[in-house]
Amino acid sequence: MKITKTVCVRHYRKRKILTASIDGKEFSGGVPASERVDLQETLNVRKLLFGKLSDTQRLYFTMKNEQMMSLDEIAAATGHPKSSIKAAISQARKIMKESLTEIDRKRTK
Prior knowledge:
- The protein has a domain at 50-109: Winged helix-like DNA-binding domain superfamily/Winged helix DNA-binding domain (Arc Repressor Mutant, subunit A).
- It contains five helices and no strands.
- It has helices at residues 2-15, 33-51, 55-65, 71-78, 82-108.
- Helix 3 (55-65) packs across helix 5.
- The longest helix has 27 residues, at 82-108.
């Protein structure tokens, strides 16, 4: 273990990494590249999944999950019965789940 550590330290010291200051310029920190890629991928998958839903399913799903509205509030806002709203949301979830399974199957090939 000690020999491995010594070899690694020696290799590191031979690299002689030089750093240079950037004269008084400040650079704001940003989001790491992996987070940007993950966010973009999430947005792409979301766009794909929402594209497979009907306008009504998309509206109900958004109201329920993103705006955190109850079924009663959605029914009051849209004027549709609670049972049809619940069925549309359930169908939307089913479609999205099947689409995610299909996407995952394609990625693993």
